[in-house]
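[audit] Reproducing an earlier prediction to check determinism. Same input, same settings, fresh worker. If the tokens differ from the archived copy the diff job will pick it up downstream; this log only records the rerun itself.
[audit] input (291 residues):
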Amino acid sequence: MVTRAPRVGGTGPDRPSGGVRVTVLIDNRLARAGLEREHGLSLWIQTATANVVIDTGETAAFRRNAAALGVDLATADAVALSHGHYDHSGGLPAALEAAPRARLFLHPAALQPRFSRRRAGRPTAIGMPAASRAAVLSCRDVVWTEDPTEIAPGVWCTGPVPRDEVREPGDPEFFFDAAATMPDPVADDQSFWIDTPDGLWVLLGCAHAGVLATLEHIDRLTGGRPLARLIGGTHLMRAGEARIALVAADLKRRAPVVLAPCHCTGGLADAALRRALPGSTRAAGSGAVIE
């Protein structure tokens, strides 16, 4: 089932008169001096008819960066989470406070407890913080994205992405329990797309489902529209050279006009993507603007 959002929003001084603009509100790196950075991701999406916050970083730092960049979060029509990890959902209370009229979109599994065995050799909680979970449960307008859903006019989320564990195996260090006995496939992972005359803008949180699987799922949902821009985390920071090469080759074939990997991409993958698409790949980071 594909869910379509009601027609909300409208043109205004804070929205581009045509096309799309994406501002990175928080990232691991800086693209502009005077802003904050953290291990997290938050994107501000502007179209001619809608404003959307995708992910909210680890803390409220994205909100302070938004103020410094002149981004008015109060105009947001929607706040959407790519998944429930703390570095994408920690700032959710600040987002909902700043954007009281926004609808909240997330997969119900985003609320589950999650742990990673990677930190300090023992399972550490990496799920949605308690304050963010409470904000979800108290929000009056929540849409659970169990299917592809239009979260604002022309802005879509994929819902759960079918996995390909052969080409893009899941992270073996993620678990539902502190004893590390129940593997967590991060089934709530979803990405976003905007269809424009020049092709698709695809926005990734972490792409835990895999970059290839995500793009192929979007191909099926959109009839194979060309990829114009790809922005966000690719979760290749601990991938081997073979997997990175597979992703780089696929993106080279798709030939996006702009490729802006960030957050969980990692230095090895970032370098490989730059080699594959030297004229398209650009740095993201807090304060970067793609339009």
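[audit] rerun output stored. Observation attached for the diff report: The first helix runs from residue 61 to 68.
[audit] end
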